[in-house]
Amino acid sequence: MKTRIGIDALGVAVPRRYVELADLASARGVAPEKYLRGLGVREMAVAEPGEDTVALAALAARRALAASGIDPRDLGMLVVGTETGVDHAKPVASYVHGLLELPRAMRVYDTQHACYGGTAGLMAAVEWIASGAAGDRAALVVCSDVARYGVGTPGEPTQGAGAVAMVVATNPALVELDVGLSGAASTHVHDFWRPLGAREAQVDGHYSVQCYLDALATAYRGWKAIAVERDVVRPGGVVSERLARICYHVPFCKMARKAHQHVRRCDLEDASAPWDVAQEEARADASFAAQVEPSLGACTRVGNIYTGSLYLGLAGLLHADARDLGGKRIGLFSYGSGCTSEFFSGVVAARAAERIARAAIDDVLAARERISVAEYERIMALPATSPLGAAPTDGYRFVGVSGHQRQYARPPA
Ligand code: CAA
């Protein structure tokens, strides 16, 4: 069995436009503080029909391959995790495979379970390499989604769009994952779903928060039991504090704060230690600022990107902190409504700072244009198959349907 497997490089792609959540709050007659502090969101990516799940995935994948420097001929697997695919049969991965002209002799498929789909792909890739079946080949895992709840809904300020692609390989330059060290939790619940044919998700918002927290408790405890057994963490007390950082799935940034408080509460309950509520609140705030907040920089500027949300958090964390994190273990929690989830961990590589710089996250975010709420509403009302007027210079673009086949324009080589 191979060891030392993980994420070698990351690529991030986001739509070219965003709306300020303070502007959206004013337009909806809501106190801006509700969005900015209550939900913890600042900016929200707005995708036009041309910037669909395929276009975003292809651009992120191209960037991840460039960042890793891998020869595409050394890939043996391409998995796209998505819950907003463009066809009931032909996977997004198939389009990405074609647009990037990847080798013929490889596995290419999508994975779906709401926001967990990307993690399903990541785990499949890691275990494929660990088993030895991959030989010397690497995998490309892409998480790509356009998150829509609809104009005027409670979920509206928690929309977003974007893709994160990861090259998964041996001796990774970003994060070496702890293979086999994870806790999973699944329950059949209707917290969030999207019936066939609907563009907007249905959600039981407050219930979905509770489902997330319930799943987190089980998954975290599952991870902790194995971590203690393997001597990866010392038992007793607030075990989660022994992780240098924790990245959570981020549907909106405040959710990460709720998640972190919940994990600490699990630790305290497990330790059967009495705690003072006010003291614990202060400790949880300090621990959130140190262990979690550094991962939220990019998330708060893009919004929910479903499958990629956890990995946008990871990208943001490495961008902010990789220099201090070399050799340190971090935790990751992936949640897919419906629901399934997984808490897992990995060790940040010594060369992560140099490698994440190639993702140029500041440049990717700075290249966007702020739009008005009226312009956002105009884009939201466009039919999904609206063709694009001009050829793109900066990314892939869906340009319309011809003979029942979706057509894409590519950026110049
Ligand atoms: N100043 C500061 N804070 C304010 C405020 C103000 N003026 N007004 C309200 N707030 C606070 C509230 O106190 C609340 O904070 P707490 O949660 O800490 O109590 C917060 O702002 C939100 O207020 P509400 O609960 O009243 O907001 P809401 O009912 O309008 O909707 C929501 C919130 C349910 C999350 C909604 O946005 C939603 O449905 N979002 C989509 C579902 C979602 O993201 N679920 C997350 C878990 S599921 C998942 O993770 C999978 C996924 O990706 C979808």
Which key features would you list for this structure?
3-stranded mixed beta sheet; globular; 13 helices; binds acetoacetyl-coenzyme A; single chain; 413 residues; Peroxisomal Thiolase, Chain A, domain 1; alpha/beta; 9-stranded mixed beta sheet; 24% strand
Decide which structural class fits the backbone.
Answer: alpha/beta
CA-atom Rg in angstroms: 20 Å
Reported CATH architecture? 3-Layer(aba) Sandwich
- The figure for the number of domains is 1
| CATH topology (level 3) name | Peroxisomal Thiolase, Chain A, domain 1
Major beta-sheet overview: 9 strands, mixed
Helices, by number, come to 13
Looking at this structure, what is the CATH superfamily? Answer: Thiolase/Chalcone synthase
Give average pLDDT, whole number.
96
SSE layout:
Layout (H helix, E strand, L loop, with lengths): L4 E9 L3 E4 H8 L3 H8 L3 E4 L6 H16 L6 E7 L10 H8 L7 E5 L5 H15 L6 E10 L12 E11 L4 E12 L5 E2 L8 E2 L1 H25 L15 E4 L4 H18 L6 H15 L7 H4 L6 H17 L3 E8 L3 E9 L3 H6 L3 H6 L2 E3 L1 H9 L15 E6 L2 E5 L4
Parallel strand pairs: 2-14, 4-5, 4-6, 11-12
Antiparallel strand pairs: 1-7, 1-8, 2-3, 6-7, 8-13, 9-10, 12-13, 15-16
Helix pairs in contact: 1-2, 3-4, 6-7, 7-8
The structure holds acetoacetyl-coenzyme A (CAA).
